[in-house]
Structures are given as structure tokens and as C-alpha cells.
Amino acid sequence: MTSVDSSRQSVKSLFKMLEVLEAFSSTDPELSVVEIARRTGLPRTTVHRIVDSLRSVGFLEQEASRDRYRLGIKLFELGGSALTNLPLYREAPPFVDTLAKLSGEDVHLCIFDGAQMVFVNRRNQIARPHNTVITMEASPCHSTGVGKAALAFQSEAVIERVIRAGLARFTPNTIVEPKRLKAELAAIRTRGYSIDDCEHEPELRCVGAPIRNSTGRVFAAISVSGPTRRVTPERVPELARAVMTHAELLSIRLGYQPEPQGRTAAPLPERNTTKRRRRTMAGAAHDERSV
Known about the structure:
By secondary structure, the protein is an alpha+beta fold. It is built from eleven helices and nine strands.
């Protein structure tokens, strides 16, 4: 076998390993070899070999009493390292803090991982023990403010993939019809911001805006959310202006150059260099090193 053939074989092996890892999800955290083979389309013997290799390096863990596997702690460690090295992670805190103080509401910052929105930073004004937007590791795209703000600016292929994965209903207001979701995303692209009108949690309204990297690609989003008694429909335009302004300023800090619109941008918040410890998760390893 030539060095070129050997290199190609190694790349193929890496892709197969990636397929196995991507077979796991938050809804299916544990899988058997048979289930992995079914999801990936790989032969069962190949899956066995890959699973053994991934388990030996800590990327997979096996239930002691069952022939089932789950993602290993090593991925959590790598994901945490990737997240803390993101320019977004380093630059975001002053923008998140300023927007929270200005709005008086909770602020969430998430990265789009190709399927869901992964938590990066947050600022909570009042702790709400049952707020799943805060406690869950990743949130869906079709029912949250950050999710719709990011999804609206993805390619048609990505939008279709999210739709095919399923549009789960969380409240009576959740958009679960593909045609209606596409219309909503088109409206978001036109006005520049999203609204989660009690679509993920009852009595919780959210306003989100997209964040771009240096190439102009939307890879994250920021939002303001609060109870409907405070975040009223009449207050949405005011919050939308604040969220869009901070999203654009953060994008500019990351290297994005918006089209001139005949206006002067507000001064950038001072950078907070204080190191903070934050909880991270394996799913947050979607590295935007291009910014």
C-alpha cells in the first residue's frame, strides 16, 4: 500500500469514527452496537472494532452490566477546551452583561452546532428553577429565540435537515408545521430578529438576534427572555433594537464588517478580563476558529 493509499484509508477510518460518535444524541444517550450499526449503515463488525477503539481512549464508555455505550468524559473535556478557546467565548461576557443590565431580563448566548443551539454564556436576573432554557445543555432551533435567530440564516439544506429531525411540540404555541416554520424564518430574515412567543416555555417570551463571524456567516445568536407579564408585545420592538445592536457589536468584535448604513455604532463595552469558571458540555465543541 502506498503512502497516499494509507492516508486515504486513515481519513476513511476517521470519518467512520465520527459517524459512530454522531449516532449518539441527547435523546438517545445510550446505544448498542446493533443500534449504532443501524444508524450509521456500517457493518456490525466494523462498529464493534470502532467502538472498542473509542472506548480504549475514553471517547465512549460502556455500561458494566449491559452491552450499551454512551459518550465518554474525554469528549466533555475536549469540548470544554474547544469552547473556552473560542473567540466568542472570550469576547462575549461584556456584551451579555451590558444587555442584561439594559433590558433587566435574562440573556442567553448560544452557538449553532448544525442541529441545536449549545449554551455558551448566560446572565440570569432572577433564578427560575423550572426554566428549561437555562438548565438544558442544548436547546432546539425551532422553538427558541436563539434557535430561530440562527436557523433563519442557514442554508436551505440545513433548515431541511433540522425539520427532518423532527419539530417537537413543547407548548401549544410551538411551531411544528414545516411550512409555517419556513415562513417564520423568512420573516426573521426580513426584520432581523426572532421572537419566541411562549413556544418553548409557557409564559416566557424571548427576542433573539444572529451573531456573525468574520466571513459574515451566522454561527451563534443572543437573546433576551422574560415572563410575558414583563416582556409584553408592546415592549418587543424596544428589546429587539437592543438585542440586534449588541449582536452586531459582538459580531464586529469578532471581525465581521457590516454594510455601511449611515449610522454610527455605539461604543463597544469594555472587555472584562476577569477569568470566570463556567460549566461546559461536550456538545459545545463546534469550533468557530475562523473568526
